[in-house]
Amino acid sequence: MSRKPVKATERIRGKIPYYGANGIQDYVKGYTHIGKHVLIAEDGANSVDDYPIYFIYSPSWINNHTHVLTAKEEILSSEFLAYALKKINYAKYLVGSGRYKLNAEILKLIPLKIPTMNEQKYIESNLSKIDKLIILQQNKLTQLTTLKRYLLQKLFI
């Protein structure tokens, strides 16, 4: 499987997510990868403090600005790997200036603590529940903000 960039003007619209360094950039027809993967920005990350890392589980088109990691599921859960990678301070691993880059050789050297598979599943399950609660609260906040905006408009008309 290879990472293939496609210019926005040359993409064929579809339902498959097209991933770049900072997540989904578009939706296209066709895919380059299928299955469980962890994506980590190679270059062009929007933030060094909140380095872009995504767990994906679907057919996806992944461009060349993103490293694709595939865990050996018998020893490492892909979901756990994504959570573990999100806790790393990447500033000391990036090279270049302005447009920082995380080289594959350096990425391979980043140390990770890997607990037993049962512990990984437990941690992953709890963090997943928290993520879902965060999304629900963010949606609620969005709805309340929209309601507030609507009421303010009606109040001053």
Query: Structural class of the helix and strand makeup?
Result: alpha+beta
Q: Strand order, biggest sheet?
A: 2-1-5
Estimated helix fraction: 25-40%
- Count of extended strands: 6
Order of helices and strands: EEEEEEHHH
- pLDDT under 50 segments (min length 5)? none
Distance between the termini: 58 Å
Q: What would the average pLDDT be, to the nearest integer?
A: 92
Rg (CA only): 19 Å
Q: How much of the polypeptide forms β-strand, as a percent range?
A: 15-25%
Mind summarizing the main beta sheet?
3 strands, mixed
Secondary-structure blueprint:
Blueprint: E1 13-20, E2 23-28, E3 36-41, E4 53-57, E5 61-62, E6 66-69, H1 78-86, H2 104-107, H3 117-155
Parallel strand pairs: 1-5
Antiparallel strand pairs: 1-2, 3-4, 3-6
Question: Can you describe what's shown?
Answer:
The chain has 157 residues and is of the alpha+beta class. It is built from 3 helices and 6 strands; from the N terminus they run E-E-E-E-E-E-H-H-H. The mean pLDDT is 92. 33% of the residues lie in helices and 20% in strands. The chain is globular, with a radius of gyration of 19 Å. Strand 1 (13-20) and strand 2 form a beta hairpin. The longest helix is centred in the last third of the chain and has 39 residues, at 117-155. Strands 2-1-5 form a 3-stranded mixed β-sheet, with no helix packed on it. Strands 4-3-6 form a 3-stranded antiparallel β-sheet, with helices on one face.
